[in-house]
Design a protein that fits this description.
The complex is a heterodimer. Chain A is an all-alpha fold. Helices cover about 75% and strands about 0% of the residues of chain A. In chain A, α2 (about 20-40) packs across α4 (about 70-90) and α6 (about 125-135) packs across α8 (about 150-175). Chain B has one domain (about 20-80). In chain B, α3 crosses α4, α3 (about 30-45) runs parallel beside α6 and α4 packs across α5 (about 60-65). The interface of A and B includes residues 21, 131, 137, 138 and 182 of A.
Chain lengths: ~190, ~80
């Protein structure tokens, strides 16, 4: 079954569907976390407060979202604003405009990363699992081999095969190639 | 597939590590937390003594009434009761 679109997810959340809310949080948790921790370099309770505040506001203001499919840019904008509020509340002397300009490339990269991650979500469970373990959880071939019961010698080839599937999926979506400059490098 | 493509995909996958599981869980429990918050506010509006206790010491009054809201909910409660 294909994953729900953002617009479908928003509609279900508005109707009080708790599973849809869980899915929305799951879908965007990495993105919000990465913007706060990697983009704006917030740490500890600052990062956690921003993370929780983002989802609290999303939940409270879902009705005010004019275009259901605009969930992603809305969440990104909300996260960025709350990160800046957090930095401002700490009384740091660097200008917020300067910070915004400095984080822009990192945020752009995260948009592309989310495209890739969404395409990953459309792969079969085995590919999703192995790519997530290797790339985002930073597990070694040995750990993956032990935990998934795959011979160590086939982990690398399976990763490569799954990356090929991921590329096919992305080309079908025609998203990342243009967003990240991949097409010109192929 | 070129090595470059594999490397670039891997690089993009690495950009989004999982958020801490406890944070995700807390965010997923927000609807329940929101219901608790609405309940507390409604009770405060209807019960002057409870309202005074909240104003005097929010966390203690909530604890005494059997509530243990998470930090963002507490923050939101302070805003709504101000």
């Amino acid at each position: 079954m294909s994953p729900l679109s953002d617009a479908q997810l928003v509609t279900r959340c508005r109707a009080g569907d708790h599973d849809a809310w869980n899915e929305l949080v799951e879908r965007y948790s990495r993105y919000v976390y990465a913007i706060a921790a990697r983009g704006y370099r917030l740490t500890g309770t600052d990062a956690e407060d921003v993370f929780q505040d983002v989802f609290l506001r999303v939940y409270d203001r879902l009705d005010s979202l004019r275009e259901d499919s605009a969930l992603r840019p809305w969440i990104a904008q909300l996260t960025r604003r709350l990160c800046l509020d957090c930095i401002a509340s700490r009384g740091r002397e660097t200008s917020l405009d300067l910070i915004e300009r400095a984080v822009e490339p990192a945020i752009e990269e995260l948009h592309s990363a989310l495209d890739v991650h969404e395409a990953l979500g459309e792969l079969d469970d085995a590919c999703r699992e192995i790519l997530d373990r290797f790339f985002t959880r930073d597990q070694s071939y040995r750990t993956i081999s032990d935990e998934l019961g795959i011979p160590a010698g086939t982990v690398a080839s399976r990763i490569s095969r799954c990356l090929a599937k991921l590329r096919d999926r992305l080309e079908g979506r025609d998203v990342v190639a243009s967003a990240s400059g991949l097409a010109t490098k192929l | 597939m070129t090595d470059y493509y594999e490397e670039r995909l891997g690089e993009l996958l690495r950009r989004l590590p999982p958020a801490p599981a406890a944070w995700v869980q807390a965010a997923q429990e927000l609807p329940a937390a929101r219901r608790t918050l609405d309940e507390i506010v409604a009770r405060a509006e209807a019960d002057a003594e409870f309202r005074r206790a909240l104003a005097a010491d929010l966390e203690a009054a909530l604890g005494a009434a059997g509530y243990a809201p998470a930090a963002p909910v507490l923050q939101e409660l302070r805003r709504r009761l101000a």
